[in-house]
């Protein structure tokens, strides 16, 4: 490929990774608060459908995104109420919500399949888009792409550089300690679960309104699970999660390129490539396998590789918290 084709491929990787970046930021916030939201796949499907229909009926793509965010927040609030107030199992509730979202998206969206609708308009950033190579890759897209990159930076700053972020991490790591210091753990978990769910909803709409225009049954099926895997790969850090989303986008682009070069090979094999890559990465990151492989690297690189490959989930992730058991009168 020549330089122009490489730039086009890299630009496509950034575009394809955008919704996953948004979803990963949302789930990272939620899991940092100690809640696992397994409803991502169903939420993204339903949000993609609702966002497309809302945009189509109102003629406003931004109202479509708003409707999708509300759906994502609604599903997340159901999860939060069920697990925090009713103390039901987070994983079971999230899985049921995924199935519900999938079925609702198929049923409610059946009359809107494969018809044209609203889409986000392209908006290259003046001057920056004209920078050789870098400009077309990062600055010649649309507002959703720019929002994703800004969101990654803001999420990282909020979690690791602010006092509210410290409280957020206490909710997911040491809720008892946070509660003893006056942090309302339950309220924080409600808040960040709903905010995270709203971002997942926006990610779903990003597909139907920007990346993969229109609606069809199973429009984003599987991508919610990929987002969950990327959160683990990213070590619950938005920046590392964004890199994971770009890696997945690169694998999708590679599959497309290979499919064009080798048309005699079944398309199924190339479509499976991104999934194989994610399974391989998850096997390596944070496991004994990675520790063994690190030993083969030069000694001067071993410490850095351990830092990259070793991940630790929030200590209280998926565990219920009861204020009464922490000394509340």
Can you put this structure into words, describing what you see?
The protein has 329 residues and is mainly alpha-helical. The chain has a domain at 3-220. The chain has 15 helices and no strands. Helix 1 crosses helix 10 (223-233), helix 2 packs across helix 10 and helix 3 (61-85) packs antiparallel against helix 9. The longest helix is centred in the first third of the chain and has 30 residues, at 3-32. The mean pLDDT is 90.
Structural topology:
Elements: H1 3-32, H2 40-58, H3 61-85, H4 90-108, H5 134-138, H6 143-161, H7 163-173, H8 175-180, H9 185-211, H10 223-233, H11 238-261, H12 267-271, H13 273-284, H14 288-294, H15 299-309
Helix pairs in contact: 1-6, 1-9, 1-10, 1-11, 2-3, 2-4, 2-9, 2-10, 3-4, 3-9, 6-7, 7-9, 10-11, 10-13, 11-13
Question: How is this structure best summarized?
Answer:
The protein has helices at residues 3-32, 40-58, 61-85, 90-108, 134-138, 143-161, 163-173, 175-180, 185-211, 223-233, 238-261, 267-271, 273-284, 288-294, 299-309.
* Quantity of strands, as a count: 0
Q: What fraction of the residues are assigned to beta strands by DSSP?
A: under 5%
Helical residue percent? over 70%
Low-confidence stretches: none
**What structural class do you assign from the helix and strand content?**
mainly alpha
Look at the structure and give the mean pLDDT.
Answer: 90
Main sheet properties: none
Compute the gyration radius: what is it? 20 Å
Q: Based on CA inertia axes, which overall geometry fits? A: globular
Terminus-to-terminus distance: 69 Å
The helix/strand order is HHHHHHHHHHHHHHH
Q: What is the number of helices? A: 15
Counting copies of identical and different chains, the oligomeric state is: single chain
